């Protein structure tokens, strides 16, 4: 069950070749009690779609492959569905849409597993996982206990949760989603989705239409992780003061912003990187993707360190030009 000197190339979507001293594939909860003596440090791996491995891992990579989807509660208007951490996220979303349970359609086609969704509170097209998560079950290796965290105890924020801070050592076992049985009526769409719906002559989209639109838009802008190494958006979209934004808009009138709070706006990091001319420029097979500048890509054979160095170069250039500190969204190991 535990393997030594294990190559992680196929387990990270950047396709970086590094080794873990120990690797263990966790397939059921019943295995947990036998795993209390794993060699530390332990890194919990899901779909490997949000990590950049820069060096060999001297510890144990615990690959969470616990699968299963079950209905916990159901009434006329909603369903509470439990998905285990090792389920492939997009497949789970597809199952919910096909079953007539709505809410997750905007989150279709995001790579990774269910277990990662609460950790970084994945989001797209105005929806975040937190909008539908009711509770999260985790395992504490120290006490050997399972713990449940209700939505409000998870401290969800933009690409953030308590599972990135205080509860970093807990292993996510399952996530309960409260989904609607009544189709959600959308009043506002992201321009990219709007364009798709207009092109397809869809005036009143069903959740399934939104699901299709999201897949199509993501396919057109984002690289397929099976073809090009990447981990989705590499940086978070930074939040800056409205004062800072006003100053920047004089120099860069094209710069977009989204409301954050009364004194702050969120700025698209992809646009900052694009303005700097990094988009589609590759050096030794590393660069920011030609269709979306927020995505760091490995066109083949790049090392994790080379990818990391490129990200630092981009961060420095963004700081130099805009006085904005970009923060990686991806976990760098
Ligand atoms: N933009 C450019 N040039 C680029 C890329 C973007 O000018 O190369 C501009 C776009 O024209 C647009 C704005 O930046 O005005 C925002 O771009 P986009 O709608 O593509 O979204 P994003 O802010 O870059 C975020 C999420 C994505 C999510 C999309 C859609 C983050 C870090 N990323 O990207 O999530 O799919 O919105 O909702 O918040 C992910 O987290 O891995 C991810 C892909």
From TrEMBL:
Instruction: State which Enzyme Commission number(s) the record gives.
Output: 1.3.1.98
Q: Which UniProt keywords apply?
A: Cell cycle, Cell division, Cell shape, Cell wall biogenesis/degradation, Cytoplasm, FAD, Flavoprotein, NADP, Oxidoreductase, Peptidoglycan synthesis
**The FAD-binding PCMH-type domain covers which part of the protein?**
15-182
Q: Which reaction does it catalyse?
A: UDP-N-acetyl-alpha-D-muramate + NADP(+) = UDP-N-acetyl-3-O-(1-carboxyvinyl)-alpha-D-glucosamine + NADPH + H(+)
Task: Identify which cofactors the protein needs according to its UniProt entry.
Answer: FAD
InterPro entries given in the database record: FAD-bd_PCMH (IPR016166), FAD-bd_PCMH-like_sf (IPR036318), FAD-bd_PCMH_sub1 (IPR016167), FAD-bd_PCMH_sub2 (IPR016169), MurB (IPR003170), MurB_C (IPR011601), MurB_C_sf (IPR036635), Oxid_FAD_bind_N (IPR006094)
Answer whether the UniProt record assigns the keyword Protein transport to this protein.
no
Q: Where is the signal peptide?
A: none
Pathway field of the UniProt record reads: Cell wall biogenesis; peptidoglycan biosynthesis
Give compartment(s): Cytoplasm
Q: Which residues form the active site?
A: 159, 233 (proton donor), 329
Family to which this protein belongs: Belongs to the MurB family.
Which PANTHER family does the entry link to? UDP-N-ACETYLENOLPYRUVOYLGLUCOSAMINE REDUCTASE
Function of the molecule = Cell wall formation.
Output this protein's name.
UDP-N-acetylenolpyruvoylglucosamine reductase
Organism per entry: Wohlfahrtiimonas larvae
């Amino acid at each position: 069950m535990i393997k030594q000197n294990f190559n992680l190339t196929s387990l990270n979507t950047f396709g970086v070749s590094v080794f873990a001293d120990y690797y263990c594939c966790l397939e059921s909860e019943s295995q947990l009690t036998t795993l209390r003596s794993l060699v530390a440090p332990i890194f919990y791996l899901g779909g490997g779609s949000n990590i950049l491995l820069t060096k060999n891992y001297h510890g144990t990579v615990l690959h969470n492959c616990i699968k299963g989807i079950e209905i916990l509660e159901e009434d006329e208007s909603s369903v509470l569905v439990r998905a285990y951490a090792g389920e492939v996220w997009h497949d789970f979303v597809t199952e919910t849409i096909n079953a007539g349970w709505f809410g997750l359609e905007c989150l279709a086609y995001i790579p990774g597993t269910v277990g990662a969704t609460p950790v970084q509170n994945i989001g797209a097209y105005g929806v975040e996982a937190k909008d539908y998560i009711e509770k999260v079950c985790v395992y504490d290796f120290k006490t050997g206990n399972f713990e449940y965290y209700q939505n409000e105890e998870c401290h969800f924020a933009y690409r953030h949760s308590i599972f990135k801070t205080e509860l970093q050592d807990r292993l996510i076992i399952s996530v309960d989603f409260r989904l609607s049985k009544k189709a959600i009526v959308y009043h506002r769409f992201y321009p990219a989705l709007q364009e798709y719906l207009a092109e397809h002559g869809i005036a009143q989209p069903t959740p399934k239409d939104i699901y299709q639109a999201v897949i199509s838009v993501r396919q057109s802008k984002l690289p397929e992780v099976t073809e090009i190494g990447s981990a989705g958006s590499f940086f978070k979209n930074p939040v800056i003061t409205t004062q800072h934004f006003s100053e920047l808009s004089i120099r860069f009138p094209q710069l977009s912003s989204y409301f954050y709070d009364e004194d702050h706006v969120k700025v698209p990091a992809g646009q900052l990187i694009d303005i700097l001319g990094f988009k589609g420029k590759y050096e030794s097979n590393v660069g920011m993707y030609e269709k979306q500048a927020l995505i760091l890509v490995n066109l083949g054979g790049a090392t994790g360190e080379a990818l990391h160095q490129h990200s630092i170069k981009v961060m420095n250039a963004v700081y130099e030009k805009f006085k904005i500190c970009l923060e990686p969204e991806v976990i760098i190991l």
